[in-house]
Design goal:
This protein is an alpha/beta fold. The chain has 2 domains: 1-25 and 220-232 and 246-362, TIM Barrel (Alpha-Beta Barrel); 34-68 and 78-208, TIM Barrel (Alpha-Beta Barrel), CATH 3.20.20. It is 43% helix and 15% strand. The protein has helices at residues 4-18, 42-49, 56-68, 87-91, 127-143, 157-165, 167-176, 178-204, 236-253, 270-275, 298-306, 322-331, 348-357, and strands at residues 26-32, 70-74, 79-80, 96-99, 104-107, 148-149, 223-227, 256-262, 280-284, 310-315, 337-344. Strand 4 and strand 5 (104-107) form a beta hairpin. Helix 5 (127-143) runs parallel beside helix 8 (178-204), helix 6 (157-165) crosses helix 7 (167-176) and helix 8 (178-204) packs parallel to helix 9 (236-253).
């Protein structure tokens, strides 16, 4: 998939980027090749991943066709991690159902259980936890350093609390029984830390291309993404009470930590998030909101830049490539920026123009 020379270039450039030494932006371009209709869909792959009767080695073999159906240009590379967001909740007893059509998983509220009765504890013999381990092993055997590896997308602590309790109940809990919310949040974090350490150790036992995750950055040191989408429903005081301390724990735990800032409702907490000490911020503007290059988001980019943090933005098609010029021009810099771009092979020329402009090796 990638030549030996390309792999080394990716490793070197990403390490320089993490250290704020790379003079150009990271620009990843993953293009879907033509005539790949017979390749398994996201939903089909997800069903295989969660089907404990399907050997992990067979899942890995099925992914080969997926990787080969893409063109990886610029700083792009293939990777694997176990989806979907919030899988730790399922490891702790939540029910779930796979939405094959949408290619995602819905984790279900723990109905019939009072807040004080939810006592999560991660059993290392839990089949889903072990499935994550088996998949990492199988993918390392199948691909070695042809791909990068991420741990399962465990999710954010208060997001899992909200998922377990339901949105309405969890908001009422903050007022009715804040001590129990803190207790549940802490117990979920303990499970998170246990799972994180063991999954990271499993990846580090063998040499792949490097560490990655659901934000497909590449790192030669352990790297993961923190999040709290629940923060969109609460104010600053509640963020400080229920979220800030846990985020600081995650920063201390994760050698290279990134934060997923998702939607206009999360922006009110950006100052506190920056103070937690993350290496970088991913900004997602959210469905239905103004585009990434709208002037209302300029303050976000300046705050992240002024704090000395890395910044990552997604470009989901060729028309969104304009976001790159906008942010570079706004900040008057190319250092510390990463753009993860996707599209179709027929638009390759448009993507290559951008790679050439910013002197990104193809």
């Amino acid at each position: 998939m990638l030549t030996k020379e390309k792999k080394q270039q990716l490793i070197n450039d990403f390490e320089d980027w993490w250290d704020h030494k790379l003079e150009r932006p990271i620009i990843q371009v993953t293009l879907k090749k033509k005539n790949t209709e017979n390749v398994a869909s996201r939903g089909q792959l997800l069903k295989m991943v969660y089907d404990n009767t399907c050997p992990a080695s067979e899942v890995a073999k099925s992914y080969r066709a997926v990787y080969e159906s893409n063109l990886y240009l610029g700083d792009a590379f293939p990777n694997f991690y176990m989806r979907s967001t919030g899988i730790l909740g399922a490891m702790l007893g939540q029910s779930y159902h796979i939405d094959e059509e949408r290619g995602t998983i819905w984790f279900e509220e723990m109905k019939g259980k009072e807040l004080q009765d939810i006592r999560p504890c991660l059993d290392e013999n839990n089949w889903l936890y072990q499935r994550g381990m088996d998949l990492i092993k199988a993918f390392q055997e199948e691909f070695k350093d042809d791909i990068a590896f991420g741990i399962p997308n465990l999710g954010g602590m208060m997001d899992i609390v909200e998922s377990m309790r339901g949105a309405n109940n969890s908001l009422l809990d903050l007022y009715d029984d804040p001590d129990e919310v803190t207790r549940l949040n802490d117990e979920i974090y303990n499970a998170y830390e246990f799972a994180y350490k063991n999954y990271i150790e499993q990846i580090s036992k063998q040499k792949g291309l490097g560490y990655s995750g659901w934000i497909s950055l590449l790192s030669q040191k352990p790297y993961f993404i923190s999040q709290c989408d629940f923060c969109c429903m609460i104010g600053p005081a509640q963020f400080d009470e229920f979220v800030t301390d846990t985020l600081k724990k995650e920063v201390d735990l994760i050698e290279r930590s990134f934060y997923h800032l998702d939607g206009p409702g999360a922006v009110r907490h950006l100052d506190r998030i920056i103070e937690c000490g993350f290496a970088g911020i991913q900004w997602i503007n959210g469905a239905g909101s103004k585009p990434i290059d709208d002037k209302q988001w300029s303050e976000i980019y300046h705050k992240v830049h002024d704090a000395g943090l890395l910044l990552q933005i997604n470009c989901y098609n060729k028309d969104e490539l304009r976001f790159i010029d906008h942010i570079v021009n706004l900040l008057q810099r190319t250092k510390g920026l990463a753009f993860i771009c996707e599209g179709n092979e027929e638009d390759r020329e448009e993507f290559e123009k951008v790679l050439n402009k910013y002197r990104v090796p193809r």
